[in-house]
From TrEMBL:
It comes from Brevibacterium daeguense. Residues 8-148 form the General stress protein FMN-binding split barrel domain. InterPro entries: Split_barrel_FMN-bd, Stress-Dev_Protein, YdaG_split_barrel_FMN-bd. This is Pyridoxamine 5'-phosphate oxidase family protein. Gene3D superfamilies: Electron Transport, Fmn-binding Protein, Chain A.
């Protein structure tokens, strides 16, 4: 990612990381995060997941649709804030289905207890690092001769 990072590049970087911490607010307004796998990111930069209809996150989303997706890659960290939508779209479920879904849901894409979860992003923040070695050298240099370490770049993107 670079200073010119746009929404599509950021969404693709998040898709490549694939696993995120999916954060909701529960009925007591407590922040709750759980790991989820991104099944797809479409051309509009919407994130798509499959979830069990009876999961606590679905209960959370019935009260508050605001969510956060937090991705941590080898050199990139991405935080995406948006709104979640739940669908019973059989065609979309079939399109998203794969080995990952088979591991979690044993009745296949026809299972009515599986929902499609779409996240429509609003904003995103990102941080990127040049790598461990370069960051360590930069930090050592800053500690010994002064200045701030060059630990990468960060920014905010309207999605």
């Amino acid at each position: 990612m670079s200073a010119e990072t746009d929404a599509t590049a950021l969404a693709q970087a998040a898709k490549d990381i694939r696993m995120c911490m999916f954060t909701t607010l529960d009925e007591n307004d407590r922040i709750v995060s759980r790991p989820m796998a991104v099944m797809d990111v479409d051309d509009a930069n919407h994130f798509w997941f499959l979830t069990a209809a009876n999961s606590p996150k679905v209960e959370d989303l019935l009260d508050n649709r605001e969510v956060n997706l937090a991705f941590a890659g080898k050199q990139d960290w991405i935080s995406i804030a948006g709104r979640a939508l739940l669908h019973r779209d059989a065609k979309k479920k079939e399109e998203l289905w794969g080995l990952g879904a088979d591991a979690w849901f044993d009745q296949g894409p026809e299972d009515p207890s599986v929902l499609v979860l779409e996240v429509v992003p609003d904003t995103a923040e990102y941080w990127t690092s040049p790598g461990r070695a370069a960051t360590a050298v930069s930090m050592l240099k800053a500690a010994t001769i002064g200045g701030e370490p060059k630990a990468g770049e960060s920014g905010e993107v309207r999605m």
